[in-house]
Amino acid sequence: MGYKVAIVGATGNVGREMLNILEERGFPADEVVALASRRSQGTEVSYGDKTLKVRPLEQYDFSDTDICLMSAGGNVSKEWSPKIGKQGCVVIDNSSAFRYDPDVPLIVPEVNADAVAGFAKKNIIANPNCSTAQMLVALKPLHDHATIKRVVVSTYQSVSGAGKEGMDELFTQTRAVFVADPVESKKFTKRIAFNVIPHIDVFMEDGTTKEEWKMVAETKKMLDPKIKVTATCVRVPVFIGHSEAINLEFEKPISADEAREILREAPGCLVIDKREDGGYITPIESAGEDATYISRIREDSTLDNGLNLWVVSDNLRKGAALNAVQIAELLVERNLISPRQKAA
């Protein structure tokens, strides 16, 4: 007997990707339901060779649904995830609404799979920020080997991290530049076409942005509370794929060759690291792929035990949709939930 799965936010970039990945990976679902706000009612979305009609979230009864993949933003999640959880359906939430709640596990399966068992307190599991997820897939095996003391990360984040509106703005502005039309900024604070913007999410009192704060808080919650993290998060004119330049300081010695071998064996990692023209990954090659790619692995001579890495991943997949589906697979593999829609 298979599971009944609901996707909330099924018409968005991540929701559509969740539907694709559920089908691609053969998730054991007997029924998949597409949900969104009332204004999207009747919109059609694809699930494998099937077409699903979107239903309104407000009118849906979750009492016979096993898993809800939630990708409709923080405000919707804050309102609906606790209600859905109380109906016995496990919510895997892609927003930041519950990531820092001590009663809600924050999970990247390659990093802290065992923490998933704590979901039963609220029937909610949080998906981390897309930039944190790919970073920790690369950092976890290195931390296990040599213990990371400090992380300095600069991100180069694609516009799809800001949703369809972000992608549309890059396209529209780029076209406007070429035809000499006025360039209008609606989604981003400054022009994104042929530019970079060192500002993602809102500013906080200490001068960091919320995106940078998320990377710090989530790394401490999922990997190790003792790790020191500092981040600079930058939006770049790329459609899909986040890139990160990461500098690491370790407690124990670790060479670039050792790191390369460790990462080659690590789950979810793919090392592409040839010291030659083109012997590294860029965001365009990561689009549509599941792996977290690691290139430019080299020692930092300014530290006793330092390494530099270049990490790239498709933010809509590993940063969001794939990670959520992997969490659902974890629940099934560990027999933490059972199908209930046919119990009557």
Automatic annotation (TrEMBL):
Substrate binds at residues 157, 235. Its EC number is 1.2.1.11. The keyword Membrane does not apply. It is an enzyme of class 1 (oxidoreductase). Phosphate binds at residue 99. NADP(+) binds at residues 11-14, 39-40, 160-161, 182, 315. Keywords: Amino-acid biosynthesis, Diaminopimelate biosynthesis, Lysine biosynthesis, Methionine biosynthesis, NADP, Oxidoreductase, Threonine biosynthesis. Residues 4-119 form the Semialdehyde dehydrogenase NAD-binding domain. Pathway: Amino-acid biosynthesis; L-lysine biosynthesis via DAP pathway; (S)-tetrahydrodipicolinate from L-aspartate: step 2/4; Amino-acid biosynthesis; L-methionine biosynthesis via de novo pathway; L-homoserine from L-aspartate: step 2/3; Amino-acid biosynthesis; L-threonine biosynthesis; L-threonine from L-aspartate: step 2/5. Catalyzes the NADPH-dependent formation of L-aspartate-semialdehyde (L-ASA) by the reductive dephosphorylation of L-aspartyl-4-phosphate. This is Aspartate-semialdehyde dehydrogenase. It comes from Tianweitania sediminis. The gene is asd.
